């Protein structure tokens, strides 16, 4: 059994991966801590289009807030301003047990405009908010 002494034949160079594993574990811990901190203010359930018959119009006692492309706001087909909407909805919800509201807008509207209506409805006392699309439900 011989052993080679000297020479470059027996020298093997390997990469030390310990620092890389340390960095990987630190990043893993950072991401595990940071992910639960991300919160969403508005949980959104997007309705899926159906191939069957078009949806029925809402009942007459339903509250429907429409927003057109020119930002005209209608509360059950009555034109209101953005400033009047919260006080009007507060008065309506004051005497109702079921505080649900439908918000209907055009697809071309930015989400931010619809979120403003959602915030106003929440402040006025709405507990259940449904989003509708003007192209799927015909206005009265």
Report, as a whole number of angstroms, the end-to-end distance. 98 Å
> What structural class should be given to the helix and strand makeup?
alpha/beta
* Global geometry: elongated
Q: Please provide the ordered H/E string of secondary-structure elements.
A: HEEEHEHE
Side-by-side strand order of the widest sheet: 3-2-1-4-5
List segments where confidence is low: pLDDT < 50 over at least 5 consecutive residues: none
- What is the highest CATH level, the class of the domain at 64-133? Alpha Beta
**Average pLDDT figure:** 77
How much strand content do the residues show? 15-25%
**Quick one: biggest sheet?**
5 strands, mixed
Q: Within the CATH hierarchy, at the fold level, what is the topology of the domain at 64-133?
A: Nucleotidyltransferase, domain 5
User: What's the helix count?
Assistant: 3
Helix content: 25-40%
- At CATH level 2, the architecture of the domain at 64-133 is 2-Layer Sandwich
Radius of gyration: 30 Å
| Number of DSSP E strands | 5
């Amino acid at each position: 059994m011989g052993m080679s002494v000297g020479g470059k034949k027996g020298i093997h160079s390997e990469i030390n991966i310990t620092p890389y594993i340390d960095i990987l574990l630190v990043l893993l811990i950072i991401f595990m801590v940071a992910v639960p901190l991300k919160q969403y203010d508005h949980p959104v359930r997007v309705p899926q289009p159906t191939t069957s018959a078009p949806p029925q119009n809402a009942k007459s006692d339903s509250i429907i807030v429409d927003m057109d492309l020119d930002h005209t706001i209608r509360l059950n087909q009555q034109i209101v301003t953005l400033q009047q909407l919260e006080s009007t909805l507060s008065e309506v919800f004051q005497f109702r047990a079921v505080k649900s509201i439908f918000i209907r807008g055009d697809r071309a509207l930015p989400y931010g405009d619809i979120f403003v209506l959602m915030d106003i409805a929440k402040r006025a006392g709405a507990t259940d908010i449904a989003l509708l699309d003007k192209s799927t439900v015909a206005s009265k």
